[in-house]
Structure formats: structure tokens, C-alpha cells
Amino acid sequence: IRGIPGGAVLPWIQNSNVPATVLLGTSKSNLDTQVPGEYRSDAETLTPGSFSCRAVKQLVEQTTYFYRIGAAGIHNFTVPAATTSAVNIAIVGDLGVYWTTPFLRQALLQDASLQALIIPGDMSYADGRTEHWDQFMTRMEPRFSRMPLFVCPGNHETADEHMMWEDAFYGAYRSRFNTDLLATNSRSPSPLFYSFDLAGIHFVSVNTEGDRSSFEPGQEQYLWVEEDLERAARRRAAQPAVYPWIIVFE
């Protein structure tokens, strides 16, 4: 689930280019909203099958939603508040398929109080090996499907380790982590960097592993971060009790 208060993106992989339909509702026994999926070609990642996703908007804060994708089982997630409230967020990075992931998965499944997860790069250590992406996503699916997830790319997310500074080589990462809605909501010109509000915290996700020239003064990402932090600072000055924190991760 890639989302913030007000909207979420539900991604999945399937073996057909006819997207499944998402059924959504606030009751497990009454999934009364139908949301058609959208097809995304997976040619760049070499995984058999294709990726689909659907943005679900107009979600209510602090509300639990139940959903089913196609004929799969029913999952649920709770939308955290955007403004100040008690929240339990896990922030972990540099995972890999065989190292941290098994222990992290168990810890996340055991902690029912977690409301969101942030992974600041180097998730599966795939380095272009699609099977590592698949193994990582399969192992983490029990938790990824039940809470908002926010990410940023690391150098091990690239499809070719020799071309790690080229955004064009983030095909596998972009297929699995659709952050278009987050980028749009935060006025970002690229889904590889964005910001969002969660429980009174303004989070800024930046990309230091893409085209590094974009993080130099006057360049695209630098200008966006500058403008975003200025907006967040003005809002915090006007409402210090509502938005007390600004956190940047990369």
C-alpha cells in the first residue's frame, strides 16, 4: 500500500494484461466500492506477468478499510491521521533478501501497533536480479499489504549497477513502488522524490542515487526540496502544535 491520508495506491502482480478489480469497503462483509485496476507493462523487469495498480482516493483519516484484489483474500489497512496524533512508525533500510528481511518480517508481523513503514533504500539488494525482487516482495507481502509504505531508491534498486546514476534504470523499482500519487500531491516533478504528512510530521523523501546533478543548487530536485521545506516551515510557524516535526530521509 503506497499512500497517505486522503488516498492510497494498491499495487499487485498478475499474469494477465486484463487488470483485476479492487473491491473496497469499511466492513469485511460489505466491500461496496469497485475500483478498476490499470495495466502496467513489466517489460523492463523481466518478471513473467505484468504489474497492475489503482489509486484509491477520498479515504477518511483514522478509518480501517478492507479490500480484495480479484479473487485474492481480503486484507485491511488503517489510514493514519495527517495532523498531530500518537503514531507508531517503523523506519528500516538496507534489508536484502537473505539478511535482515526474515527477522524484520517476523518483527513487523508481531507488532500490531505499527501504523506505517518507511524504507529509505536498498530493499532487496536486487542489483538487477529480478528474482531477488520477487522473493523480497513475497516475503514482505503479509505486512506490505496491511499498512502504508513509503520508500526512496538506493543504489541497489538499479537494474544495472554500472549505470546506477541513471533514473532510466529504475524500472523494477518503479514497477513495484508506485509513488505517482505521492509526487502529485506534493507538487514534485518526479516520483523518485516526494513529501507527505503523517501524524503531524512532514516527511520529505529525496533521491541521492539518481541523477546527482538534480541535487545541485538550481537543479530540479534541489529547487523542489527548497520550495517544499519552505512551505512546511511556514506551516509549522503558523501551526506549531499541529505540524511540529519535519523529517527528511534518503
The total beta strand count reads 14
Main sheet specs: 4 strands, antiparallel
Report the order of strands and helices.
EEEEEEEEEHEHEHHEEHE
Strand order of the largest sheet: 1-2-6-5
Give the C-alpha Rg: 18 Å
Mean pLDDT: 82
Low-pLDDT residue spans: none
Describe the structure.
By secondary structure, the chain is of the alpha+beta class. Helices cover 24% and strands 27% of the residues. The protein has a four-stranded antiparallel beta sheet, with no helix packed on it. The protein has a four-stranded antiparallel beta sheet with strand order 4-3-7-8, with no helix packed on it. Helix 1 (96-110) packs parallel to helix 2 (130-144).
What is shown here, in short?
This protein is an alpha+beta fold and 250 residues long. The chain has five helices and 14 strands.
Blueprint of the fold:
Layout (H helix, E strand, L loop, with lengths): L1 E3 L2 E8 L6 E5 L7 E4 L1 E3 L9 E8 L6 E6 L4 E5 L10 E3 L4 H15 L5 E4 L10 H15 L4 E3 L19 H6 L3 H6 L8 E5 L2 E5 L14 H19 L6 E5 L1
Features:
four-stranded antiparallel β-sheet, 250 residues, alpha+beta, 24% helix, 27% strand
